[in-house]
Specification:
Elements: E1 9-14, E2 18-25, E3 28-31, E4 41-42, E5 45-47, E6 52-54, H1 56-60, E7 69-70, H2 84-92, E8 96-99, E9 105-111, E10 114-119, H3 120-139, E11 145-150, H4 156-168, E12 172-178, H5 179-188, E13 197-204, E14 209-217, E15 220-229, H6 234-253, H7 261-278, H8 285-311, E16 321-325, H9 332-341, H10 356-368, E17 376-378, E18 385-389, E19 393-398, E20 406-412, E21 422-428, E22 438-445, E23 458-464, E24 470-471, E25 473-476, E26 482-484, H11 496-543, H12 549-566, H13 573-602
Parallel strand pairs: 1-11, 11-12, 13-16, 15-17
Antiparallel strand pairs: 1-2, 2-3, 2-4, 5-6, 5-7, 8-9, 9-10, 13-14, 14-15, 18-19, 18-21, 20-23, 21-22, 23-24, 23-25, 25-26
Helix pairs in contact: 3-4, 5-10, 6-7, 6-8, 8-9, 11-12, 11-13, 12-13
Bound molecules: adenosine monophosphate.
Adenosine monophosphate binds near residues 279 and 354.
Length: about 600
Amino acid sequence: MEGKGKEKAIGIDLGTTYSCVEVWQNDRVEIIVNDQGNRTTPSMVAFTAEERLVGDAAKFQIFSNPLNTIFDVKRLIGRRFTDSSVQADMKLWPFRVVSQKNGKPTVEVSYKGEKKLFATEEISSMVLMKMKTIAEQYLQSEVKNAVITVPAYFSDSQRKMTKDAGRIAGLNVMRIINEPTAAAMTYGFGRSQEEKKHILVFDLGGGTFDVSIVVVQKGKFEVKAVGGEAHLGGEDFDNSMLAYCAQHFNKLYKTNFFVNSKALRRLRSECERAKRSLSSVVETIRRAKFEELNFDLFEKCMEVVKRCVEDAKLSKSQIDDIVLVGGSSRIPKVQEMVRNFFDGKELCRAVNPDEAVAYGAALQAAVLNKEDIHIVMVDVTPLSLGIELVGDVMKVVVPRNTSLPTRKETSVTTAYDDQTAVDFGVFEGERPLVAFNNLLGKFVLRGIPASPAYAPSIKVCFEVDIDGILNVPVHDKGSGASNEITITNEGGRLSIQEIDKMILDAEKFHREDEEAMEKHVAKNALECYVSNMKKRAMKAKSEGSMDADVPEDLISTITAVAEWLNDIDNVTVVELQDKLKELEMKCLRLFSCKRFKFIKSEE
Ligand code: AMP
């Protein structure tokens, strides 16, 4: 069999609200269900007095533990604490986000009775490790290699931090690919596309909105243009409903919902549920209210679509198919607006909006794993990249929508006589003034020989790899001085030492989780056995089918174990297993007495 015995490579869609993992196996992509039998897993991590929970288990207990249940971390990763979006989100999150010295947002929780801080990469790594474990259980072998998807609009630092999260989770991140590109691959895979087709992928998920125009032809996927909003999705629709309802209830009950984290969480969940059902129930006045509350956000989506079509230098009529991806693309109003924008064109329903991204990631993982599958993907830079010139002007070196990988050069010089050092600021964004763009990092080139202004010629090279990650080597031709950007300051990326520490912590947490799980299983087995035996003993007692002292003896043994089970905080898995064995032996002995009596009575 193709690929037999070879280590598998998985595709992970690390979503804001849900994550999904798929794998290429038996000549097709298989979706991997989690331990609860679900095809997607909540991107949630919870901390309790005893344990750490990830995925469905974290979601189950969110109402009882809102302060220590972390979700939406994708909205935080690679951002600064002072970002307006972080500040706005924080108002609606029940958990606490604090600023680190380097300006990075960090979550603060209470775990095993202690206050603990976790970096956003660490929380993401916990979700990734869960997805890794789900895949390992399914494949019955260790999994290391993975392709992880990110929104096309993710910045350089958001991509790097997602990659770091993968490393912390013990994954070899083979590639970071854009979510809409992955969805386009899903769309195109298996279609023997002779003719060139322009596909628009409309990806509206929980936290982000992405649009891509991809040219599909004969197994080749070439991204023409990308656009989107790093902060627009289903949770914003929930938030507008939440704000509306909370204000309404505040007035009605003369209270302040916003300070009651439990009530807020419950209300948010109800809003989300109502939103989902409004996608399938017939038009109601509540649906009209929902659409009214979110109309501006829906309009914003359409502006992005319009700009993306323009960027690809296409007319609306040249778009051959529109692929809807992401849970929020199910909203009827959104679909109607997309359809209307494309003059009534039918939308493609061939791909599953929740699974298409992980499917594409699994395809890409299979290609990189050298499986027998032929796809070529050419992605683009989502934002222009450039350097700061005198007067705070942005000089674009790599324009937006340039195919990846790319390497572009430019030259700079000194501004005054005998200048021996030059400061470099590297930015991403579309505004002419750097102040409105996103600073990726700063560095200095020293050792330039003293010379008149404008004499030196310093070569600046922008290298963007296939993951969309940027490296900027600079070189002064005259002196041979060189330097290279390492984005550790403004981007707030973790240092190698910090990552190594987090890898160790992640392994420790993983072991602890496994121990906690084994303890749950052992405790459960013992509890089940105790309860069964108790029932049998009571039955035997009432039927008189045993010697009179046997059920009494059994009941007191069982009661003692049940009491012991009430206080097992400091008990190990082995002790629980030993207790079960001991009880089984005792019960077996006592029940064999019963059988003896039974046989005797038959004689
Ligand atoms: P994703 O990030 O693709 O997993 O999308 C998750 C988002 O889709 C969440 O905000 C969900 O509330 C939203 N969603 C899922 N199903 C529906 C639906 N039927 N109608 C509206 N929104 C939905």
